[in-house]
Design brief:
Helix 1 packs antiparallel against helix 2. By secondary structure, this protein is mainly beta. A hairpin with a 2-residue loop joins strand 10 and strand 11. The relative contact order is 0.10. The protein is elongated. The strands form four sheets. A six-stranded mixed beta sheet has the order 1-2-4-5-8-9, with no helix packed on it. A five-stranded antiparallel beta sheet has the order 3-6-7-10-11, with no helix packed on it. The protein has a three-stranded mixed beta sheet with strand order 13-16-15.
Length: about 180
Amino acid sequence: EVTFNTSDWSEDRSLNLKGEAFFKVKKGSKFTVNTTQGNVSVLGTQFTVNARENLYQVICYEGKVLVVSQAKDSITLTQGMAFLINKGTQKEYSLDTSEPDWINNESSYKDMPINMVLDELERQFGITILGKENLKPALFTGRFSHKDATLAVQTVFMAMEIPYTIDAQGNVLIQK
């Protein structure tokens, strides 16, 4: 969800974001993405912001971005750098890609808590995953395609060795 004021856009290129978005910003005046977890300011670049409950992630694909978290910590990211806050823990890392994978109908993760990956499977395919409370904390590194829900679930669950069944509506039940 993106909201912004159209009446003064030429003077204040600022918007509010809930969720995840990719931005390709032409050089010009300052452009700011405001979220409940922090703000990202740029002059011309390509980047993603993912602002969800317990997750704040910024990835810079080109140029330079200034990230200011809700705690008022700031970091400058350049091409190939990323910043993540997950349940209060901050992490900087690098990656080797020129655009977000979801533009090409894939989701990819590096050391992402499994519950957040499962949340994305639910959002992406409109399914429900029951029994998440039975999972032990674990980190997922990998990817899944957005083209086939069954294959995506199989990819994640087999990689993490999570026993499951799928009901007639396509919902997933994690077995104890």
